[in-house]
Amino acid sequence: MTTTATASAHSTTAALAVQDVTVRFSGLTALDGVSFTVEPGSVHAVIGPNGAGKSTCFNVLSGVYRATSGHVRLGDTELTGLPPHVIADLGVARTFQNLALPPHATVADSLLLGRHRLTRSGFVATGLRLPSAAREERRHRDRVREIAAFIGLDKELERPAGSLPYGQQKLVELGRALCMEPKVLLLDEPIAGMTADERRRTAAVVADVRDSLGISIVLVEHDMGVVMRLADAVTVLDFGRRIAGGTPAEVQNDPAVVQAYLGAPQ
């Protein structure tokens, strides 16, 4: 895999801190005082049985849900309560469990959507094809090619994204998030539904994002093999509470985690 994308990589210096976050929906507590810290340039997995609160946690981090109480901070910047587009502008990008690609757009145009927040040319300049707008578009398209090469899709740029195999479509979605030049990347089940070969390839890309680009990654994933191989740290949720945290090895052997997953007595 090529690492051309490192040319524009920026190392993150800010930790993502989740402090005592509680989310309630009309009496139901979806998250209950959850705290964890994603260290800069690390992969931090959030795992737990179905209904544990993982998706709610992601929705709070990306601004889709508002925390009832508690704080989310990226370095010194308070993210709590900000709308999703502002959080994205501050450097938090996410992918979704379900594919959300425009079916007929090419891979190049799908990736280019991720550059939208970085576009400085105004509507009029772009519409009139002014030189400044043309130069900026060239820069964005160059960056799209670099990121496509980084994720291994440089040969597919002119193909409709919807015509690619499922695993490659998920990679396009990951690439679109990378095109936002994020400091933190939220990956919601990035390898769900993939073949063994696609899983291996995508896991390698995720590891490369951390190692080559220095981007912090928060990962929700059911494949424990991938979590144990990729994650630097793991937070375990059950019924909205944090029941364990630590390295993959520590978490794997924690009796509370075994009980949550297997229903076995501690």
How far apart lie the N and C ends?
A: 44 Å
Number of helices: 10
- What is the third-level CATH name, the topology of the largest domain? Rossmann fold
The appropriate CATH architecture of the largest domain is 3-Layer(aba) Sandwich
Q: Give the number of domains.
A: 2
Return residue spans where pLDDT drops below 50 for at least 5 consecutive residues: 6-12, 121-125
Could you describe the 3D structure shown?
With 266 residues, the protein is of the alpha/beta class. It folds into two domains: 13-91 and 184-190 and 214-266, Rossmann fold (3-Layer(aba) Sandwich), CATH 3.40.50; 95-181, 3-Layer(aba) Sandwich (Rossmann fold). The protein is 36% helix and 22% strand. The protein has ten helices and ten strands. The chain has helices at 54-61, 84-89, 107-112, 123-127, 131-150, 166-178, 196-213, 224-230, 248-252, 255-262; strands at 16-25, 28-38, 43-47, 69-74, 77-78, 92-94, 184-188, 216-220, 233-238, 241-246. The radius of gyration is 19 Å and the shape is globular. 38% of the residues are buried.
